[in-house]
Amino acid sequence: MSQLNFEKPILELEGKIAELRHMTNDDAGLNIADEITRMEGKIERLLKQTYSKLTAAQVVQVARHQNRPHFVDYVDQLITDFTPLAGDRNFAEDHALIGGLGRFNGQPVVIMGQEKGHDTQSRIKHNFGMTRPEGYRKAQRLMHMANQFELPILTLVDTAGAYPGVGAEERGQSEAIAKSIETCLRVETPIITAIIGEGGSGGAIAIATADRIMMLEHSIYSVISPEGCASILWRSAEHAKEAAAALKLTAQDLKALKIIDDIIPEPLGGAHRNPKLTIQNVGKKIEENLKTLMKKPKNSLKEARHEKFLAMGTNL
Description:
By secondary structure, the protein is α/β, with parallel strands linked by helices. Helices cover 49% and strands 16% of the residues. It has helices spanning 8-21, 25-28, 32-51, 56-63, 71-78, 120-125, 133-148, 166-170, 173-186, 201-205, 226-233, 240-247, 251-256, 275-294, 298-311; strands spanning 79-84, 97-104, 107-114, 153-159, 191-200, 212-216, 220-222, 262-264. The mean pLDDT is 91.
């Protein structure tokens, strides 16, 4: 597990517990079980204390933790009969955005999201979750298909942003993002989005213009990364902490601003400490919202989605 600097006292205790588990009572001259229980209690108290007062910059670190569950983990646990669909029928396949057909609790759905990868090889393959234009055009294709067959759309967002390379710009990155947003607003089938890690800029909102937008408790959603914001405003990425606070990018900030609809609780210590429970929590929230949205007429669903986004920012 990669280390978070503010978790140092917790990680030290966890290291001591690991050492104790390899010892016998005779070696230690104490009751190892009792000592482990005492330390575990201390760890739980430290986790509660630490995670109850995270700064915005610390939330950014947790949201980027490499051991948080990724898109493929959610599909493995929540979706049955998943059939990935590849290509934008125009240029190429983009492995940064994965999408396809499957069943969520028996309900046929179209599901898509960014995949960052778990190791060096897979991160390179998936371009660290940064989608190119062909990825967004694939998303449009899947959304049109979902609309045609009246299938709900589930999107899981985890990206630092759209890929900023020259080739992506030459192939119409901004147009592809804009058309994806437009497609989200035009379809007449329910769209549910969960931000499971980073929600970066247009790269995120391209598949997050949804009827219900949820965020994991320690995820982030912002128009720009703290480092990018600091480089523009302070001419130095060293001011990323100040930028993170100013951007109001945490789930709690965005819920108060009515940008998102719900916050999904994470296990104590963050999603990276208990990926399986995190995925279960996301699944429960998707199920709740899907039941509600599936009962609504198609026209009213689309109109409500338009009104939702037009109302954003009017009460600030």
